[in-house]
Design a protein that fits this description.
Transcription Regulator spoIIAA, 6-stranded parallel β-sheet, elongated, alpha+beta, 2 domains, 12-stranded antiparallel β-sheet
Length: 326
């Protein structure tokens, strides 16, 4: 985590300007805010329009300063998530001690600056919270840095998954053999589901289709984010990959959702574990070490290709942080 800057409210809210700020606060502040600056876009975050305005500034300005008359965390979290890695930093105007910790630790990442009036109790609390965040930053960065890799996982069990809504993703182009989509019940453990490119004696191949699984599952998108299968729409681009991990984009042409029986496949790779619900059908295949494996013939001890990552996601965007999905 970057160190949090503490900014002092200037003439807009407290009548304090850079010239007459009390020395006790001026010496503690990284910046005195006087209402405008060329490197800062200021947004009033009271409804979805304010959130949209803030999101539109990500990558366009050095800083986004957000104000909210009644602090709610979800819009701030959305902005923090969008700004991560973009070069834009987020400052939050805070006037009450109770709101400090939520802003400083939003999504385990937090804002980059806290803007506060000259209030002793508020500043004392802010400095304590910033010290807490700084003291844990090195350990957190070492353990939660985002890492993704394709590995072989061992199947732990295969059992009935009941009946539910299954999503087939039909693309506007054909897949090659060994290509598919990354799908899973956890965003940190996605299984490579093979496209329907393997011929069968029972049904013709559908080289544009991936029988992706249950509506709740995550899938990897072409931009590196994740979405639930239930959220997908025609025209969006998903990530197509193979066992090497090479990714290319492909556009969705249609989604086919039907009630079908599922098999629940649990797997483990080292210290990581996950599960995926796949339709109980011979044409649904995983990718093993040297060949494809039909889900209906899969057994404990088989190896399947998965993508393991660490970190967390918020509305599909990857962030440093901890997340446990089972």
């Amino acid at each position: 985590m970057n160190r949090v800057e503490l900014w002092l409210e200037g003439e807009d809210s407290s009548g304090i300007t850079d010239g007459d700020a009390p020395s006790a606060f001026a010496g503690r502040a990284a910046r005195v805010w006087e209402g405008s600056a060329p490197d800062v876009g200021e947004v009033q975050l009271d409804d979805f329009r304010g959130q949209d305005e803030a999101l539109s500034l990500v990558g366009m300005v050095d800083w986004i300063l957000v104000r909210c008359s009644d602090w709610t965390m979800i819009p701030l979290e959305n902005i923090v998530a969008a700004a991560a890695g973009s070069g834009t930093r987020v400052a939050a105007a805070i006037s009450q001690v109770v709101d400090l910790r939520g802003a400083a630790f939003a999504l385990q990442h937090g804002v980059d600056a806290l803007l506060m009036p000259a209030d002793e109790a508020l500043w004392d609390s802010a400095e304590q919270i910033v010290a807490e965040r700084d003291s844990g930053s090195s350990a957190d960065d070492a353990t939660t840095a985002s890492v993704a890799q394709m590995v072989l996982a061992e199947v732990s069990s295969v059992e009935s998954g009941g009946v539910g809504e299954r999503v087939c993703v039909d693309l506007t182009e054909r897949l090659a053999l060994a290509e598919g989509m990354l799908i899973g019940s956890s965003a940190n453990a996605l299984v490579l589901i093979h496209g329907e490119t393997v011929p069968s004696q029972f049904v013709p191949s559908r080289p544009f289709r991936i029988n992706a699984g249950a509506v709740h599952a995550y899938c990897l998108m072409a931009d590196g984010s994740t979405r639930y299968l239930s959220e997908l729409q025609a025209g969006q681009q998903v990530a197509i990959t193979d066992a090497s991990g090479a990714i290319r984009p492909a556009t969705i042409g249609r989604l086919k959702i039907e009630r079908r029986p599922f098999l629940l496949v649990r797997f483990a790779a080292g210290q990581h574990s996950g599960q995926v619900l796949a339709q109980q059908a011979e044409t649904v295949r995983f990718i093993g070490e040297a060949n494809t494996l039909s889900v209906t013939s899969l057994a404990a001890g088989d190896q399947i290709t998965v993508q393991i990552s660490s970190g967390m996601r918020h509305v599909g965007r990857e962030l440093a942080g901890e997340m446990n999905e089972r």
